[in-house]
Amino acid sequence: MSRHLEATIESFPIAGGFTISRGTKTEALVVTCRITDGTAIGLGECVPYARYGETLDGVLADIVAIAPAIAAGMTRETLQGAMKPGAARNAVDCALWDLEAKLSGTTVAGHILTSPPKPLITAYTISLGEPGTMAAKAAENAHRPLLKVKVGTGDDESRIRAVCAAAPKSTIILDANEGWPVDQLARHIGISAECGVALVEQPLPAGQDAALADVEHKVVICADESVHTGGDLAALRNRYDAINIKLDKTGGLTEALTMKRDAQALGFRIMVGCMVGSSLAMAPAMLLAQDADFVDLDGPLLLARDREPGLAYEGSLAFPPAPALWG
Asked: Which residues form the Mandelate racemase/muconate lactonizing enzyme C-terminal domain (predicted)?
């Protein structure tokens, strides 16, 4: 029986806005892929990211273009060579995983994990803002065990100190989104270490991160924009201690699983992260993150409205997806 693919753009409002060093978003615009064989439907969601040259219309077109091959029986394995890594392939790959699970009666978790998936502590994101505003938001969420704090200005000392003081019992990770100048790198890392920060994510622009090989790593330094697929790993070994795996970068769960295995073999610590999307985007990442060192899958917590059914959260504890959602 042939398979039919369709893709649509959907919008989910963000509660209060979401600000990083590159700007502010008030809604999560996602592309949802549906693949059906007439008896079951597989779903996948992706978030096109302008930083990587992606647009909603471009990603939508890339997904629609692969529809004839999907109808002809393209597998996840052949999909990897037919589409480039990125958001479009992620949506199709995850929809195929979901469809396979529904048709086989075996969950994705049962296929890729050796034991049942467990709830995980996820980071909760504090948007970039003035130090006092960020401190107030951190204090409001100081009960959460893990906070991810957006920084990325020429002088973040006051932000780092204010947030760490406001949430003294929380583990703090900083995400500079490529925003730290090279001449401030050592200073900001030193301040981070002094304040007990656990990890700094992507401090320098991708392509300018060679300086990380020459600075003392007083905290764990994690690659995000500098790492997309497994082929990027070898070049990062003397620059980063950890990598952030996002399905919208790898182009789906299939590549992400391989990349995670290879990264662990090279000694990298693992963060599993996300773009701002709905629970459908988080669901496959929850399975990928089962033994990760850091989990950053709070996308639905930042939304004013999520999918139904969505992932279950109790505070910062995220529960594995139910089959009614995905997988």
From this structure: 131-222
pTM, two decimals, is 0.96
Catalytic-residue membership of 218: no
Whole-number Å distance between alpha carbons of 292 and 120:
10
Running along the chain, 327 residues long, what does each successive block of 10 average in pLDDT? Answer: 93 83 81 97 97 96 98 96 98 98 97 97 96 97 98 93 98 96 96 98 95 96 97 96 98 98 98 97 98 97 95 97 97
- Measured between alpha carbons, how far is 310 from 322 in angstroms, rounded to an integer? 9
CA-CA-CA-CA torsion sign (252, 256, 258, 262): positive
Residue with tokens 């615009």: 29
C-beta neighbour count of 269 within 10 angstroms: 16
Point out the catalytic residue in the list 102, 137, 148, 246: 246
> Is-contact 275 177, C-beta < 8 A?
no
140 belongs to an annotated ligand binding site: no
Told to judge if 102 belongs to the known catalytic residues of this protein, a careful annotator would answer no
How much is the CA Rg of the chain, to the nearest whole Å? 19
Domains of the chain: 4-108 (3.30.390.10), 112-318 (3.20.20.120)
Q: Check 102, 148, 150, 260 and give the catalytic one.
A: 150
Contacts of 193 (CB under 8 A, 6+ apart): 218, 219
Residue 100, annotated as binding a ligand: no
Q: How far apart are the first and last CA of the chain?
A: 21
List, in order, residues 6 or more apart from 201 with CB less than 8 Å away: 148, 173, 174, 175, 176, 177, 221, 222, 223, 224, 244, 271
